[in-house]
Amino acid sequence: PPASKGKGSQLRIVLRTPPPGSREDDAPSALDAHSLDGPAGRLAIVLSRLRPQKIVFFEPRVAWVREVEVYAAREHRRCPLTPEAPPITVYFMVYKDSVEEQRYLTSLRREKEAFEHLIKLRSSVVIRQMEPVLPKQLLGPLESNSRVVQEPCVLVDVREFRSELPALLHRKGMKVVPLTLSIGDYILAPHICVERKSVSDLISSLNSGRLYQQCTAMARYYLNPVLLVEFSMPAHAVSSGGDRFASSTGAFALFTGRNAVLAPGSQLDLGPRHLMSKLVLLTIHFPNLRILWSVTPYCTAELFTELKMGRAEPSLDKLPQDGENLGEDNVEAVDMLLKMPGISWRNYRRVISQVNSLSKLAECSLERLTEILDNRECARRLHDFLHFEWTPTVVADTGGPNPAQAAPGAPTTKRPRLDLAKRVRTARAARPPRRH
């Protein structure tokens, strides 16, 4: 029982425990309602309530020692050690080489062996990692007027089945449809076309110009053309220690030979024939082109899964073919048509099917353009662009000869750009000469 606290004396609290040997450490105690093992007298609750600085165990147990360690760590975190708050001291009142001491040491040895066995088992056991398979309704669009959800599918070129990527896409729950594609290697959505290249294929395609032709075809038929580059990194680059890329040039620092970005002992010098220079020119010519980098086919399958989430499925009926309704003579005309206001990849085929040439398109009225495009706003923008009246700027004659005049009495007309350049030259000529 707790003793009385007199003047100049410290508070002493003695907590009763079951007699030694009356039960095991992990057995519930029913001998004493006020025992530390009971729900009303747990050691953690007693320590947090009394907050002692010195603790004496007449019968040491491993579970009690661990609770005291947790209490000491919590107190140290709450208020660091100060001269006024000394560390918590624990005493064991047992005889040397006694039964109580051996029981405590045996419990410590069992605890240590259990942790060693757990660490060894964790390092050698095979844990099956379940790959999360996304629900099919998340991969494709959910139609409100239909209860049947369309199975996600990917159109794959038959030549790509020599790689393991189509099999990985099938394991992801996608329907792989083999086709002979003339444009791209993978069709993920009606507006997403992927051209897959390895590093060696990328270098050879850039040098031969084939990649430029492939990107031209993808950009003509798809809104989001994608260039996928798969490369295998060396073992030292994917290790856990250190940076992956020692150079600031990124993954291209892994390549050696004539395609090396940074040769040993030399400065960074990217010439016009360099691999990165050609990639930069490719992105400049095709602003909508997206370049994806993947280390392994497994990463590529994850990228395709994320790209297909919430997007429509590709259709075989609307699959474009290289050269369909687009001969060698009208490639530039179609590219020019796509640059006009109101014309996009969604409606340019309607114009091609109903108008033979750009001159015939310029002669169409607003009602005819609305009928062709099936959109009055797009027809208005195109009509305003084709029938915009440009008034040339008349520049006053300054007295000098003008070689652009058709006749001596004709007014001098120049474009605003030339007019601005003339003003700049006139302003420079008006400066006073420098004095030496």
TrEMBL record:
<feature type="compositionally biased region" description="Low complexity">
    <location>
        <begin position="398"/>
        <end position="413"/>
    </location>
</feature>
<dbReference type="GO" id="GO:0003684">
    <property type="term" value="F:damaged DNA binding"/>
</dbReference>
<dbReference type="InterPro" id="IPR047520">
    <property type="entry name" value="XPF_nuclease"/>
</dbReference>
<feature type="region of interest" description="Disordered">
    <location>
        <begin position="1"/>
        <end position="33"/>
    </location>
</feature>
<dbReference type="GO" id="GO:0003697">
    <property type="term" value="F:single-stranded DNA binding"/>
</dbReference>
<feature type="domain" description="ERCC4">
    <location>
        <begin position="153"/>
        <end position="233"/>
    </location>
</feature>
<dbReference type="InterPro" id="IPR011335">
    <property type="entry name" value="Restrct_endonuc-II-like"/>
</dbReference>
<dbReference type="GO" id="GO:0000724">
    <property type="term" value="P:double-strand break repair via homologous recombination"/>
</dbReference>
<keyword id="KW-0539">Nucleus</keyword>
<dbReference type="InterPro" id="IPR006166">
    <property type="entry name" value="ERCC4_domain"/>
</dbReference>
<dbReference type="GO" id="GO:0000712">
    <property type="term" value="P:resolution of meiotic recombination intermediates"/>
</dbReference>
<feature type="region of interest" description="Disordered">
    <location>
        <begin position="396"/>
        <end position="436"/>
    </location>
</feature>
<dbReference type="Pfam" id="PF02732">
    <property type="entry name" value="ERCC4"/>
</dbReference>
<dbReference type="GO" id="GO:0000110">
    <property type="term" value="C:nucleotide-excision repair factor 1 complex"/>
</dbReference>
<dbReference type="InterPro" id="IPR010994">
    <property type="entry name" value="RuvA_2-like"/>
</dbReference>
<keyword id="KW-0255">Endonuclease</keyword>
<keyword id="KW-0234">DNA repair</keyword>
<dbReference type="GO" id="GO:0000014">
    <property type="term" value="F:single-stranded DNA endodeoxyribonuclease activity"/>
</dbReference>
<feature type="compositionally biased region" description="Basic residues">
    <location>
        <begin position="423"/>
        <end position="436"/>
    </location>
</feature>
<keyword id="KW-0540">Nuclease</keyword>
<dbReference type="GO" id="GO:1901255">
    <property type="term" value="P:nucleotide-excision repair involved in interstrand cross-link repair"/>
</dbReference>
<comment type="similarity">
    <text>Belongs to the XPF family.</text>
</comment>
<keyword id="KW-0227">DNA damage</keyword>
<keyword id="KW-0238">DNA-binding</keyword>
<keyword id="KW-0378">Hydrolase</keyword>
<protein>
    <recommendedName>
        <fullName>DNA repair endonuclease XPF</fullName>
    </recommendedName>
</protein>
